[in-house]
Amino acid sequence: MATVGRRGSLFRLRRAGGTPVGPDGALVAALAGALSPDRVRNDSAERSLLARDASVFKGGLSGPICFPTSTAEVQAIMRISLAYGRAVVPRGAGTGLAGGAIPLGAPVVVSTTKMNRILEVDLDDRVAWVEPGVVNLDLSNHLRPLGFHFAPDPSSQQACTIGGNVANNSGGPHCLAYGVTSHHVVALDVVLPDGDVVTLGGVDPEPGGYDLRGAFVGGEGTLGIATRIAVRITPNPPAVRTLLLAFDSIEGAATTVSDVIAAGIVPAAMEVMDRLITRAVENFVHAGYPDAAAVLLAEVDGMEAGTAIDAERIAAIGRANGAISVRVAADDEERARLWKGRKTAFGAVAQIAPSYYLHDTVVPRSALASVLRSVYAIGEAHQLTIVNVFHAGDGNLHPLILFDPLEPGVLERVHAAGAEIVAASLDAGGVLSGEHGIGVEKRDYMHLMFGPDDLDHQNRLRRAFDPMCRANPGKVIPSSHSCADIQALRSVPTGVWG
Amino acid sequence: MTARAVAALDDFAAEVGTVGTVAVEGCRTRWSAGGPPEPGARLVRAPEGVLEHRPEEMTVRVRAGTAVAELHSALAEKGQRSALPERGGTVGGALAVGEDDLSVLGRGRVRDALLQVRYVSADGRVVTGGGPTVKNVSGFDLPRLFVGSLGTLGLIGEVILRTNPIPPASEWLSSPDADPFAVAASLHKPGAVLWDGVRTWVQLEGHADDVGAQARALETLGSWEPASGPPEVGPHRWSLRPGELRGVPDRIAGDWVASIGVGTVFASEAPPLRSLAGGLGRLAKRMKAEFDPTGRLNPGRHPGGGI
Ligand SMILES: Cc1cc2nc3c(=O)[nH]c(=O)nc-3n(C[C@H](O)[C@H](O)[C@H](O)COP(=O)(O)OP(=O)(O)OC[C@H]3O[C@@H](n4cnc5c(N)ncnc54)[C@H](O)[C@@H]3O)c2cc1C
User: Fold this and answer.
1) Which alpha helices (H) appear in A23-145, and where do they start and end?
2) Ligand 1 centroid vs B105 CA: distance in angstroms?
3) Which residue, A124, A322, A423, B110, has most beta carbons within 10 Å?
4) Is residue A475 included in any domain, yes or no?
């Protein structure tokens, strides 16, 4: 689905002593015995398909691929892999952008695509129990007739899975008011890397003990495999207003965002798109966006009177910051069209360039305007076009660095510009990632944000779940601080940035 | 980060040191939560002070020894509040216990409010988990692990919390005859719906017109009178599924107040201890061993009573 880097590899994962793994006959037979032969695949075509995700990273190497249908089968896979000394990597839809699902060192890949049932919706408890392979949008569509939805709405929601959302603690436009995935996951059944099956959290508010549910969410597949997930369902708001504000400078849009929050309004969503992306979207889906330096898509929801008041206040704050037009969606159809533009923005980029590298950092809202200036300057310095479409309300930047992979030497410039964007975000008091995760992409940047003791403690959390480093090794924690050092991986990844 | 803040954390780390058992003393409002600390433990206090409130970021940086009341009065000056419970104690104590405010439906959960935690580890170092922004997935979620950990993994010194605007209007009502479940189902985002088996209290929050409209709509569900705030509640907390609350009268003796839609029941009687059996108990033990191998931090306290 993603157009990311589809015409070339950006950075090849280096594998030290990467001995190709043989046919794995005994392992495959054991796995097939526990599942069924048709749900364990080991042909090279399929293995190479699952060696990638939606990120730009290549060089993953998959071992046998399993398609379990139950917790018991996942547990069996975990135990068999352990017995064969093999790591295990969970995989949802593979839409991750940080390389989280990329198998390193020929691990057993556990695909959740056949665990895609919505098990139970309990309106008294206001939770839905789902299997991890349920597609995000399918859950909200299922809940709609009941008057509810699942609040986290990543732009990839037509494809990504709830299990992937949990592992990446994913966000989306409406997480500004409603919170990211972690706010909405109350309990999980998890197969731990040692084969134990545990329930973390609970449908009751204080299940007792450490909040291991909270620790697991965002674990990027390195803490175990979620096999059943209880998510909070959110009632649909009685009133919604969607506004489109156009500005002749991106600073005007950015300042409006921080002024709205400072005024005590927490909209359901505030998304900003710059001129290039707005034009591309307009050509692509005719969302009705004006041609302006930047547009701000803002949505408020809740009770009728407050929604109307907040919409007016946002419009006024926008005008005070130089908005050249303010449009309020007249009906559901117009509202859907405005959102369609935002949700198809990444796809629309294909109109401008054959490939792109999507970054994800967060900065304080008050620093949005100045960091955006830096981002454009970084692009100019490296002779690269950078477009921006982002979750402005949370200060969550998504600069897209556009490039043609056929252009010689371009990858180095893309790489350098990306590193400078990360540095500019951290300098402004920001963080490495707002929603895409660390994976392999930013693993070697972790030391820019955390000191050695901080990383050591994150690794302790990891080790408590996975003392042997069997789950998705080589991710999140830089190798100098990770338990991967003590683990006899067949091939140890040594860094993606070369 | 000001120089003074660094010094305060370093001083706290020096006070905690590297040997001997230590327990943190806040306001002692929840001193026995999870069991009182062992008598031999040396008592230490976390540093105090509200360091930086940034309303436009909806964040505040505050030291753990600060009273929640002091934090909330500082936030209120700029029209904001946090999820920490109004029922007293220090910021660090409230986070370590993890108890939500009675108005949790409006204020959000404490476990979702901690963005960054700076704590003193069992080996006397200052460690930082999480980050300063409202959205962040950089690495593993140490802040969430620390909420409710009763100071058994590290001693919280300084934090960055998410803040939220105080709604323009708020009103408490109570009714002797309304069905609390019908009330909760009829309201969009109330601050709280509480029930003691007879009486129902609701907190309506939002813009004044919406609060007024909701108050009028409630009249179809019972007779209402204004209330000055939530009822007095007992010291113990039971945790039930929201869907189980109808059965509370048959289940909990003594006085109680149930938080409808949440599942917490505040009671005069203590709930039975839960034990963390099997794989979950083993996982919790491994976590404790990773962070505090010699068991010097808050010995005697057990989150959930099980470890
Ligand atoms: C066009 C596009 C738009 C996007 N927009 C957004 C956005 O708005 N917000 C956002 O947050 N993200 C966005 N993403 C990123 C991505 O879609 C999310 O991270 C998503 O949650 C990943 O889900 P997935 O099912 O594809 O997971 P995968 O990519 O398959 O896996 C992601 C991680 O989850 C782990 N994992 C998967 N299943 C499990 C399980 N059952 N148990 C334990 N670990 C598991 C994997 O090991 C891996 O580390 C976007 C991606 C694309 C391509």
Assistant:
1) 25-34, 44-49, 71-83, 136-143
2) 29
3) B110
4) no
Kindly state the average pLDDT of the residues A182-186.
Answer: 98
ipTM attached to this prediction: 0.96
Are residues A266 and A208 located together in one domain of the fold? no
Q: Scan residues 12-51 of A and list those with Cβ closer than 8 Å to B.
A: none
Residue A306, chain B, CB below 8 Å: the answer is: yes
Could you give the CA distance from residue A204 to residue A125 in angstroms, rounded to a whole number? 9
| pLDDT attached to residue B87 | 82
Residue A460 has pLDDT above 90, yes or no: yes
CATH code, B3-165 = 3.30.465.10
Residue finishing a domain among A85, A111, A137:
A111
Q: Is the pLDDT of residue A225 over 80?
A: yes
Tell me which residue in A197, A366, A433 faces B57 most closely, judged by beta carbons: A366
pLDDT score, position B277: 82
- Are the beta carbons of B291 and A457 separated by less than 8 Å? yes
pLDDT at A7 over 70: no
Tell me the C-alpha distance between B35 and A3, whole Å: 55
* Distance (Å) from the alpha carbon of A45 to chain B's nearest alpha carbon: 33
Which band of pLDDT confidence, cut at 50, 70 and 90, is reported for residue A40? very high
- pLDDT of residue A8 exceeding 60, the answer is no
Q: How many A/B residue pairs have CB atoms within 8 Å?
A: 252
Ligand 1 atom 11, closest CA: A170
Q: Is A258 in the pocket of ligand 1 (CB under 6 A)?
A: no
Q: Is residue A126 part of a domain?
A: yes
Does the beta carbon of A181 lie inside 6 Å of ligand 1? no
pLDDT confidence band for A418 (50 / 70 / 90): very high
For B90-138, write each residue's pLDDT tens digit: 999 999 999 999 999 999 999 999 999 999 999 999 999 999 999 999 9
Q: Are residues A82 and A19 in the same domain?
A: yes
Judge whether A459 lies within some domain.
no
**Are residues B138 and A210, on separate chains, in Cβ contact within 8 Å?**
no
Contact B133 A431 (CB under 8 A): yes
Domain count along chain A: 4
pLDDT for A23: 64
A112 C-beta closer than 6 A to ligand 1 = yes
B34 has pLDDT over 90: no
Whether B2 has a pLDDT exceeding 90, the answer reads no
- Three-class SS of residue B208? helix
Listed by start position, the domains of chain B span 3-165, 169-267
Question: How high does pLDDT run on average in chain A?
Answer: 91
Read off the CATH number of the domain in which A416 is found. 3.30.70.2740
DSSP3 helix / strand / coil % (chain A, rounded to 5): 40, 20, 40
Q: Give the residue numbers spanning the domain of A202.
A: 118-235
pLDDT at B198 over 70: yes
Q: Residues A57-90, buried b or exposed e (16+ Cβ, 10 A)?
A: bbbbbbbbbbbbbebebbbbbbebbbebebbbbb
The token pair that represents B186 in the structure block: 């009829």
Cβ pair A431:B108 closer than 8 A: no
Q: For chain B, how many residues are written?
A: 307
Summarize chain B as % helix, strand, coil (round to 5).
30, 25, 45
Choose the final residue of a domain: A325, A348, A371: A348
Q: What is residue A29's three-state secondary structure?
A: helix
Please indicate, yes or no, whether residues A247 and A225 belong to a single structural domain of this protein.
no
Q: Please indicate, yes or no, if residue A94 is contained in any of the structural domains.
A: yes
Beta carbons of B147 and A207 less than 8 Å apart: no
- pLDDT, one tens digit per residue, over A109-132 is 999 999 999 999 999 999 999 999
Return the CATH number at A264: 3.30.70.2190
| Cα–Cα dist A392/A297, whole Å | 10
Same domain, A241 and A226: no
Q: Is the CB of A226 under 6 A from ligand 1?
A: yes
How far apart (Å, rounded) are the C-alpha atoms in residues A354 and B105?
Answer: 47
Identity of the amino acid at A180: V
Give this prediction's pTM: 0.94
Answer whether A463 touches B (CB < 8 Å): yes
Q: Residue B276: what pLDDT?
A: 82
Is there an atom of ligand 1 within 6 Å of A133 CB? no
